[in-house]
Amino acid sequence: MRLALFEPEIAGNVGAVLRLGACLGVAIDLIEPMGFAWDDKRVRRAAMDYIDHVTFVRHASFAAFRETLGGARLVLFTTKSSESAYEFRFRADDVLLFGKESAGVPETVAQACEARVRLPMRPEVRSMNLAMTAGIALGEGLRQTGSLPG
């Protein structure tokens, strides 16, 4: 299983997701352009020394990222889906895709995904923090596939 962030805008979220990947042994894909300078100290501060323990790849575009998928299924997390992540059946080689903080993903990217799921939440709120959502989603995917670290 892998996590992919589409055009992330907040360095702190990227750092937190890199730390998540390090802790759970999951590779991270970062799809550019990003909304901050990569050498931004906030990425390293959020990832702390965990950045040295995670495999991550920066992709110049969504097209370049898609070339790396092979036979993996691309699963988009979006508030626009009606299918709960807790009812969805994950596969061990799924790539979990999360859109940019301000706008999600464009429809062309959503159409390229094999599945769209959401995390259930109260209707009076709009969305969760990107890193928090990635953590919950990844935990469920790894739990379902028996892939949580020991």
Describe this structure in words.
The structure is a single chain. This protein is an alpha/beta fold and 150 residues long. The protein has a single domain, classed as SPOUT methyltransferase, trefoil knot domain (Alpha/beta knot), CATH 3.40.1280.10. The chain is built from five helices and six strands, in the order E-H-E-H-E-H-E-E-H-E-H. Strands 3-2-1-5-4-6 form a six-stranded parallel β-sheet. Helix 1 links the parallel strand 1 and strand 2. The longest helix has 15 residues. The protein is globular. 34% of the residues are buried.
Which characteristics define this entry?
150 residues; alpha/beta; Alpha/beta knot; 5 helices
Largest sheet: 6 strands, parallel
Taking strands numbered 1, 2, ... along the chain, how are they ordered across the largest sheet? 3-2-1-5-4-6
Query: Would you state the CATH class?
Result: Alpha Beta
The helix-and-strand class reads alpha/beta
- Shape descriptor reads globular
Query: Whole-number average pLDDT?
Result: 94
Low-confidence stretches: none
The CATH topology comes to: Alpha/beta knot
The portion of residues forming beta strands comes to 15-25%
Q: Number of domains in the coordinates?
A: 1
* Intertermini distance: 16 Å
Kindly provide the radius of gyration, computed on alpha-carbon positions and rounded to a whole number of angstroms: 14 Å
Which sequence of SSEs, written as H and E, runs from N to C? EHEHEHEEHEH
Strand count: 6
Name of the CATH architecture: 3-Layer(aba) Sandwich
Tell me the name of the CATH homologous superfamily: SPOUT methyltransferase, trefoil knot domain
Approximately how much helix is present in the residues? 25-40%
Helix segment count?
A: 5
